[in-house]
Inverse folding.
């Protein structure tokens, strides 16, 4: 049972490049989340999904897009990367809302030069 | 809007010392409260949570936290820390029914052998 798997683990981009971060969970969870973690800022919610085919904006959605075409996968896209998007990105999943059981991935460290 | 404050940014203790990490939140309604731990290079793991009932909750690895509603606080405690407790600790708050978990900025704990 792999839990929540994020790929890639590390990535370096140049300003203006695009990329997609993949989050996959094998626990049949309905809810999935993308957070970013910045020094001195804690984790902030970017986007989330309450089920296959649904997405919603979180606290800091600008510059990101997401898709949940399959229940097990939640993709985070950066169309035109900016240095301000240098961060560690965490994906999480939960069987229900309320955050009672939230499982995190191991993170993706992204640097935008 | 919800917010979470963790006043201690970096705490350094010797092994066997007692630990108390502060967490205060602002939210006008019913809340669910969490403490997460992030060991170096790892993903966030749940230490303990409070949803209702006894305001003193016990978690894994000997940690406990007390919810004091009148003070909007949820401080984390451990009577005797170990070197293996070296990690970053995050307090988080979810307003009942809301689709976001708000994290504090984290407290880095260093335990000296």
């Amino acid at each position: 049972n792999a839990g929540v798997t994020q790929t890639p683990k590390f990535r370096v981009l140049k300003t203006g490049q695009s990329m997609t971060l993949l989050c996959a969970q094998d626990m049949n969870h309905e809810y999935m989340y993308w957070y970013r973690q910045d020094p001195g800022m804690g984790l902030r919610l970017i986007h989330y999904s309450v089920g296959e085919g649904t997405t919603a904006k979180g606290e800091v959605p600008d510059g990101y897009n997401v898709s949940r075409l399959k229940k097990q996968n939640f993709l985070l896209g950066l169309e035109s990367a900016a240095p301000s998007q240098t961060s560690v990105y965490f994906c999480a999943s939960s069987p229900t809302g309320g955050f009672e059981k939230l499982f995190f991935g191991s993170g993706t460290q992204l640097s935008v030069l | 809007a919800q917010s979470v404050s963790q006043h201690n940014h970096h705490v350094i203790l010797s092994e066997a010392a007692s630990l108390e990490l502060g967490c205060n939140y602002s939210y006008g309604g019913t809340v669910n409260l969490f403490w997460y731990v992030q060991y170096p290079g790892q993903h966030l793991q749940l230490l303990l949570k409070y949803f209702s009932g006894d305001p003193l909750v016990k978690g894994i690895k000997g940690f406990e936290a007390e919810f004091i509603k009148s003070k909007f606080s949820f401080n984390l405690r451990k009577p005797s820390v170990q070197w293996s407790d070296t990690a970053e600790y995050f307090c988080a708050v979810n307003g009942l029914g809301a689709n976001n978990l708000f994290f504090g900025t984290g407290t880095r704990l260093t335990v000296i052998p």
Remarks:
- The longest strand of chain B covers residues 87-95.
- The mean pLDDT of chain B is 93.
- Chain B touches chain A at residues 4, 9, 32, 34, 42-46, 49, 51, 90, 92, 94, 96, 99-101, 103-106 (CB under 8 Å).
